[in-house]
UniProtKB/TrEMBL annotation:
It is an enzyme of class 6 (ligase). Substrate binds at L49, E54. It comes from the Bacteria. GO terms for molecular function: 5-formyltetrahydrofolate cyclo-ligase activity; ATP binding; metal ion binding. It comes from Alteromonas australica. Belongs to the 5-formyltetrahydrofolate cyclo-ligase family. GO terms for biological process: folic acid-containing compound biosynthetic process; tetrahydrofolate interconversion. This is 5-formyltetrahydrofolate cyclo-ligase. InterPro entries: FTHF_cligase (IPR002698), FTHF_cligase-like_sf (IPR024185), NagB/RpiA_transferase-like (IPR037171). ATP binds at R3, S4, E5, L6, R7, R141, L142, G143, M144, G145, G146, G147, F148, Y149. Pfam families: 5-FTHF_cyc-lig (PF01812). Its EC number is 6.3.3.2. It catalyses: (6S)-5-formyl-5,6,7,8-tetrahydrofolate + ATP = (6R)-5,10-methenyltetrahydrofolate + ADP + phosphate. Its cofactor is Mg(2+).
Length: 202
């Protein structure tokens, strides 16, 4: 199937999930993320705000904020992606906490207001959590079609040390085999409400 047709079908499937199913999925993903070994000593975790029926990371983000105030082992800082103002099609990651001033980007998705001092370089992150439209059992990721994460991660995909790349998805976004292009950056792990699939040692 063509990527555009797959996107349409998979987006419809997640858009049709009920509020109750979405809430349950977000809680189940939070529990699974808390069990990820890589989060026990994490520095920064890049998250996202849900759009188009994506699994919400808000319970996870709140958990990180609350844990930071205690001596809990999982007390990493959270960042959010921001559309790069100069390098079109790329993302920056900015620190995100309860005080962050948010603005809407051109996709009407809230993002932290751009302030240079709040930019967190990619190499400072332990993990980048990515939303996706579809995934397969080989760790391939189909996004919304903008290629933002592929472009942003292109320079680090082969690097020896880089953040773990973890896709977050509903179970209904799993397909047998995705059509893959050379620029698609594969994932190190995928977390759904019922599964944690890891593809390498990260
Ligand atoms: N590293 C890259 N450099 C330049 N263009 C890229 C890069 N990665 C992706 N793109 C462009 O982004 C577009 C969308 O990528 P695609 O993989 O289809 O989207 P998504 O990953 O959001 O599903 C492609 O047409 C491709 O040309
Ligand atoms: Mg891609």
């Amino acid at each position: 199937m063509q990527r555009s047709e797959l996107r349409k079908q998979l987006r419809l499937a997640r858009q049709q999930l009920t509020r109750a199913q979405q809430d349950k999925a977000a809680e189940a993903v939070l529990q699974r993320l808390c069990d990820l070994p890589l989060l026990s000593h994490a520095t920064y975790a890049a998250c996202y705000l849900p759009n188009d029926g994506e699994v919400s990371l808000t319970p996870f983000i709140k958990h990180c904020w609350q844990s930071k105030a205690t001596s809990h082992p999982m007390r990493c800082n959270t960042t959010l992606p921001v559309l790069h103002p100069v390098c079109k099609g790329h993302l920056l990651f900015l620190g995100y906490d309860a005080q962050t001033h948010m603005v809407k980007n051109t996709f009407a998705i809230p993002e932290p207001e751009l302030a240079c001092q709040n930019i967190v370089p990619m190499r400072h992150h332990s993990v980048i959590f990515m939303p996706l439209v579809g995934f397969d059992s080989q760790g391939n990721r189909l996004g919304m079609g903008g290629g933002f994460y592929d472009r942003t991660l292109a320079s680090v995909r082969e690097a020896h040390t880089r953040p773990a790349l973890v896709g977050i998805a509903h179970d209904c976004q799993h397909v047998d085999r995705l059509p893959v292009q050379s620029w698609d950056v594969p994932l190190d792990a995928i977390v759904t409400p019922t599964q944690t699939i890891t593809f390498n040692q990260k």
